[in-house]
TrEMBL record:
It comes from the Bacteria. InterPro entries: Beta-barrel_TonB, Beta-barrel_TonB_sf, CarboxyPept-like_regulatory, Plug_dom, Plug_dom_sf, TonB-dep_OMP_SusC/RagA, TonB-dep_OMP_SusC/RagA_CS, TonB-dep_rcpt-like. This is TonB-dependent receptor. Residues 1-31 form the signal peptide. The keyword Zinc does not apply. Belongs to the TonB-dependent receptor family. Gene3D superfamilies: Carboxypeptidase-like, regulatory domain (2.60.40.1120), TonB-dependent receptor, beta-barrel domain (2.40.170.20), TonB-dependent receptor, plug domain (2.170.130.10). Residues 480-990 form the TonB-dependent receptor-like beta-barrel domain. One of its GO terms (cellular component) is cell outer membrane.
Length: 1028
């Protein structure tokens, strides 16, 4: 064979072999095989609904309720597993037919869907400032209300309890206070429906069982809130409750029970300390008078029998004292039970949940029972139509304890007695007392009850007209019925054992409804994305209320049968009746357009017009536009080499929003009649109700807020670190104030739009994935906010309003008092007397005189701004760890730089010593032999104005608000008994607080009054979550 033929033969042979191998390889590569597998979480639990797709192909499926899937793929295919809230995973098939994968949670998943006004948006596509809480974060806190679970977890959201009483709600301020006299509370939107705050007993979000909440989204900047127009300036809180989803029926039962323990009580004197204190007082009082008047100083102590009663002298001699605080407090009980059933198929989804909450308070006789019921059904009729309905119902039965009992316990002397020698209860603790009663009587004889029913149904229907175009209509009534009653027996504090009994009752009925109509268009053309929403809404708000009271009931029938009141012991009955009605209508049109180019440049334009019946013609309509722009810098080509940063986005927005919650929006159109039932005129010896002196203002309109927001979003190191920073400035014009007008008008003042307030600040949120492995994960969430509130203008004349405590250039809420700089000491006698003081009394800073130089006297000109209840900054830190089947989380919250009145000090440091109103406070007070520089001498009521200054305290605090340790039982163990999941946990709620504040609770330092106070509490609980 020639060499040429040989080479040809060998070459052809080699080519054939290569071709055969290539053919076999291609065949192998393109061979499609059914790949099966299971997707689980880090604890080994199956995850339903995980998207499974072949990378670069159209083939895709999802996992079933057991986390299993089947998909056709070749050995060279790459399977991509994705789920919102989890870190995606990519796995090459290879020569396997089974591919199992475990997904871990992601703190910073950009594909998360965020709820915004009248729609949803992916987090990465947001142009506004929005923060969110997921269901697990809410339920893990084990709070009795959603607002408690929110505290410390959302930057810029300041949350405080309104009262220490069971069932009390919270106040929330987002980015500061925008109003002086109007509401500073946000708008609450539940399942897309704006919900009214129907009276003080029911804050809308407090009525929702935390176990029924899917997520909470807080809209903060004007780009997000302007869609809500005249009610968006204070921010918007969107609550989305749970609904059913495709899958087998799922039954979940969650229950916990805990002990509620009162703690952090202000220190009070024990018996011997109090006895010495009273002796010091009566020894120091004449000495102080003598020193002040340059008279001989008495040195003889006052005899005990002149300052203590016979009962007290006997108790002192026997060493028998009464701890009145211990007499009224106890450990309470907190218990929750929740049951839900959900499921569905391709056409129908359903969700049903019932909850029961029991709270037995830390004061005797106080308790709260709350029942919730949620039902929802969503039905896909065909490819075009979908409809659904839901209803949320809350019923609460609240029995507040006697406020008088709480107050008396802190005002009674420990030298008194709660019981007589025969064991019966004493009405007065000692002979010299005729005003403060034994609190045990008030527990039994002052009976209070509050009940309310809140029903929130919703029905909707939507239709897909053409591809990308959808129309939706929804109708939502909002009905609340409240009633309350109070009965005071003759032997109660308010009746003092001599006056006839009394009773009162009140009822409120709120009927509201909202009808919304939406048209939504979504489309994508090449690099262009369009998302347009337009709509209109109609709202109706009606309130009816009645109130009745009577004295002299012939039998103790609580607050019923008031008509039977009669003369008792010669005292004629007093019967009062009141009623009222109000109506408000709101009509709105709104729209929002989102445009995205090349997934890098995002534009949002929003507009809303509101018409409100509470304003006069010509001022009924308000117009609220906004615009926003976001630039995803990290998607630019020049940024491709920056590997450490996964996302860098800049946000900018500007717009207008409003506030229609002016004093009392229901009665605003009837301002001249607002006190019709409270003003009595004398007509020939007979009283008649009439018009109160007020002057209507036909030009009154909304408070309007202009806001700028600059935001930055970053994700770094493969989404291990997430950063959100927002800078904002809000200016509210036309703040509603009561303005003095000339007397010639016949009225002293009128309500008008005059003031201007500015809020500006910074918010920072940082999420980190510190450790992420197969068995152990550790995530943290840190946030803080600084808000600077400033009053820019009041009445247009540049002058302060000292009488009402309003000062231009200062915060809109301030403490304006004398400033204490210490206590006058013995060696400062001459200097003290030059100010009309003596050693042992408070030093007041002298700041006023000619040319601003101290003038050597203390007068009202020396008052100054010493603080504000608005914090300088606040923030929180949450750390969550998971190891194998164990999980642990802890949340810390701090609020710094606030200064407020302590009701505790206000009461116990005010009044005369014969009732020991300030003797209960155990403090290091000044005496000639104990030169304290903190607390003045015992004869404090001679110290004039300084007495009230001492009650204002730094109310800053840091607390650990929540600690939870849980364990999820292995699935292999549970499968044997047909259980899908079982988690047991222990939780400590508000276990520790650190503060220098002197009072019951720095979170609620002032409350509404002494009568609304209660002990600060912590709760230790155990619970389980069972899924079938």
């Amino acid at each position: 064979m020639s060499k040429l033929k040989l080479y040809c033969f060998r070459g052809c042979k080699l080519a054939a072999v290569v071709a055969l191998q290539l053919f076999l390889l291609l065949g192998y590569a393109f061979a499609q095989t059914n790949i099966t597998g299971k997707v689980t979480d880090t604890k080994g639990e199956p995850i339903p609904g995980v998207s499974v797709r072949v990378k670069g192909a159209q083939t895709a499926t999802s996992t079933d309720t057991n986390g299993k899937y089947v998909i056709s793929a070749s050995p060279t295919s790459v399977l991509v597993f994705t789920l919102v809230g989890s870190t995606p995973s990519e796995i090459t098939v290879g020569n396997r037919t089974t591919v199992n994968v475990s997904l871990s949670e992601s703190q910073n998943d950009l594909s998360d869907v965020v709820v915004i006004g009248y729609g949803t948006k992916k987090k990465i596509d947001l142009t506004g400032a929005v923060n969110s809480l997921q269901s697990e974060e809410i339920t893990r806190a084990r709070a009795t209300g959603a607002q408690e679970a929110m505290q410390g977890r959302l930057p810029g959201v300041d949350i405080r309890r309104n009262s220490g009483k069971p069932g009390s709600d919270f106040s929330i301020e987002i980015r500061g206070a925008n109003s002086i006299t109007g509401s500073t509370q946000p708008l609450y939107v539940i399942d897309g429906i704006p919900v009214a705050q129907n009276g003080s007993a029911t804050n809308p979000i407090n009525d929702i069982n935390p176990a029924d909440i899917e997520r909470i989204d807080v809209l903060k900047d004007v780009s997000s809130t302007a869609i809500y127009g005249s009610r968006g300036s204070n921010g918007v809180i969107l609550v989305t409750t749970k609904r059913g989803s495709k899958g087998a029926t799922k039954i979940t039962y969650d229950a916990f029970i805990g002990i509620v323990n009162p703690y952090n009580l202000p220190p009070v004197m024990d018996g011997p300390t109090f006895v010495n204190y009273v002796r010091d007082y009566f020894y120091e009082l004449p000495r102080a008078t003598a020193i002040r008047n340059n008279q001989p100083i008495p040195t003889t102590p006052i005899a005990d029998n002149t300052i203590f009663s016979a009962t007290e002298l006997s108790n002192i001699a026997n060493g028998t004292y009464t701890d009145w605080i211990d007499l009224i407090k106890r450990n309470g009980i907190s218990s929750n039970q929740n049951l839900s059933i959900s499921g569905g198929d391709d056409k129908t989804n359903y969700f049903i949940a019932a909850g029961y909450q029991l709270y037995q308070g830390t004061m005797k006789a106080e308790s709260t029972k709350k029942y919730t019921l949620k039902a929802g059904l969503d039905k896909t009729i065909n490819k075009t139509f979908k409809a659904g309905a839901s209803m949320y119902t809350t019923f609460a039965d609240i029995h507040p304890s006697s406020g008088e009992a709480f107050r008396s316990a802190y005002r009674l002397r420990p030298t008194g007695s709660a019981y007589n020698a025969d064991g019966s209860e004493r009405f007065f603790a000692y002979e010299s007392e005729a005003q403060i009663t034994n609190p045990l009587f008030d527990f039994r004889n002052e009976i209070r009850q509050q009940q309310y029913l809140h029903v929130l149904p919703n029905v909707y229907a939507e239709a897909n007209i053409i591809k990308g175009l959808k129309v939706r209509t929804s109708f939502s009534p909002d009905i609340t019925i409240q009633k309350q009653g109070q009965f005071n027996d003759t032997f109660s504090k308010s009746r003092l054992g001599t006056l006839p009994n009394s009773a009162s009752t009140a009822a409120n009925q709120f009927v509201n409804y909202t009808w919304d109509n939406l048209l939504v268009y979504n489309n994508e053309i090449g690099k262009h994305k369009f998302d347009v929403t337009v709509g209109n809404s109609f709202e109706y708000h009606q309130q009816d209320f009645t109130s009745n009271s009577a004295t002299g009931l012939p039998f103790n029938s609580l607050w019923y049968n008031l008509q039977s009141a009669t003369t008792v012991n010669g005292i004629a009955p007093v019967i009062t009746v009141g009623s009222g009605y109000s109506l408000q209508n709101i009509t709105s049109v709104y729209g929002r357009a989102n445009y995205t180019y090349n997934d890098k440049y995002l534009f949002t334009a929003t507009f809303r017009a509101d018409g409100n019946s509470i304003f006069a013609p010509g001022h009924k309509w308000g117009y609220f536009p906004s615009g926003a722009f976001a630039w995803i810098i990290s998607k630019e080509n020049f940024f491709s080499n920056v590997k450490a940063i996964d996302l860098l986005k800049l946000r900018l927005s500007y717009g207008k929003s409003g506030n229609a919650s002016l004093r009392d929006p229901y009665f605003l159109p009837y301002v001249t009649q607002s006190k019709l039932n409270q003003t009595v005129y004398d007509f020939n010896g007979s009283g008649a109700n009439g018009f109160a002196p007020a002057f209507g203002n036909q030009d009154l309109t909304w408070e309007k807020t202009d806001e700028y927001n600059l935001g930055l979003d970053m994700q770094m190191f493969k989404n291990r670190i997430g950063l959100q920073v927002d800078l904002y400035r809000k200016t509210t014009n036309g703040t509603v104030l009561s303005q003095r007008i000339p007397d010639a008008n016949g009225y002293p003042n009128t309500t008008t739009n005059l003031g201007t307030i500015r809020n500006q600040g910074i918010e920072v949120g940082i999420n980190t994935v510190n450790i992420r492995s197969d068995k152990f994960t550790w995530n943290t969430n840190f946030n803080f906010a600084i808000n600077n509130n400033k009053l820019l203008e009041l009445y247009g004349d540049g002058k302060d309003d000292i009488g009402n405590g309003f000062f231009i250039g200062q915060k809109s809420r301030v403490v304006y008092r004398y400033k204490i700089t210490g206590v006058w000491q013995n060696e400062e006698l001459a200097a003290a007397k030059s100010y009309g003081r003596i050693p042992g009394q408070y030093k007041i800073e002298d700041i006023s005189g000619p040319n601003g130089v101290p003038d050597g006297k203390i007068d009202p000109s020396d008052r100054q701004i010493i603080g504000s209840d608005m914090p300088k900054w606040f923030g929180g830190l949450t750390s969550t760890m998971n190891y194998a089947n164990f999980d642990f989380s802890i949340t810390l919250y701090t609020r710094q730089g606030s200064y407020e009145n302590s009701v505790f000090l206000e009461q116990v440091m005010n009044g005369d010593q014969t009732r020991a109103r300030f003797g209960a406070f155990d403090r290091d007070y000044w005496t000639p032999t104990n030169p304290s520089n903190t607390w003045a001498n015992t004869a404090i009521e001679t110290d004039g104005d300084a007495r009230t200054v001492a009650q204002f305290q730094n109310s800053s605090y840091t607390k650990i608000s929540n600690m939870t340790l849980g364990y999820t039982l292995p699935r292999t163990m549970l499968n044997k008994v047909g259980i899908q999941g079982l988690r047991v946990y222990a939780n400590a709620f508000n276990p520790f607080i650190f503060s220098k504040f002197v009072g019951w609770d720095p979170e609620n330092p002032s409350g509404n009054s002494f009568l609304n106070q209660d002990f600060r509490t912590r709760t230790f609980m155990f619970g389980l979550t069972l899924t079938l």
